[in-house]
Amino acid sequence: MPSVVKLPRKNHLDLAQRILEVARQQGMRPGAHLPEQQLATLCNVSRTPIRAALKVLAERGVATRESDAGYRLAVDLSLPADFDSGLPRAEEAALADAILRDRAARRLGGTITVTELMRRYNADRRTVLKAVLSLTDDDILQRAPGQSWVFRPIPDSPQSIAASFEYRLLLEPAAVLVPGFQLDGVKAAALRHGMEALLSRPDSEFGTREFQRLDIEFHRLIAQGCANPFIADALAGHLRLRELPGHAGSVNVFRLRQSTQEHLGILDNLEARQYEVAADLLKVHLRLSGNQRPQAANRGAPPLQGLIRRLV
User: Fold this and answer.
1) What's this model's pTM, rounded to 2 decimal places?
2) What is the pLDDT of residues 138-188, one digit of tens each?
3) In 134-280, which ranges are E strands?
4) Terminus of the chain with fewer CB atoms < 10 Å: N or C?
5) Are 119 and 213 members of one domain?
């Protein structure tokens, strides 16, 4: 009889990924000690799930275990290259991604049922329900009358992507201008390091996935810094939509470099507490990104770095 491979629990996988993000933000290098108590504090959990998550990392070769010193980091998280932790996906997480891909390709309608998904993906009810509930928690699905769920609007077409940028133009600059905005200095420093490293690479080695990760983290930093919890929560929810599989469009390296430089300029002003300048630059950045045409950016609006020099 073939042996059954036991997959790690989803919460342990999520926590393992969170540990890698913390290690990246802390600037940990290969061989650095991964202290259980410090990680538990930073991840806001007890040491028991941290141990389970570290074990997952060790099983994937991302960390090593030493009997006398606990766990140590085995990979270089500071490299700008696209980093794949190799962590397995929980079954329900993989199913949720498949549902989203099929919805984006219009292979699924706007309304779904658990029975339909069980039949389509040859999955058991428990796994399907977990996937559906995770999508509901992310505001991608909402419960409908009876036994059905309805997809909420997501940025998966030119029209909805344009609407997404309009939404962000209204909220993100406002988030910066809310009194009490607080920038997380540790995360900001880690972001700056990552963006500068990415810009140092030649076009042929420019990491699109790394750009996408840094882009999401930059805009998440703005959402987290907002002192208004309603605006912060709205932006965080919208950011989750931007992390959906297949969301990223095809934009050339020139625009991605330009966008990264814009991020750095905005970050400069946030760190200097020049919030009105940062909000103005953020508006220009979102308009240029919404256009997604470098030639239009060059003709229709002045370079953002020039704006920075004039406004600071």
Assistant:
1) 0.64
2) 778 889 888 899 988 877 777 888 888 999 999 999 999 999 999 988 888
3) 141-143, 148-151
4) N
5) no
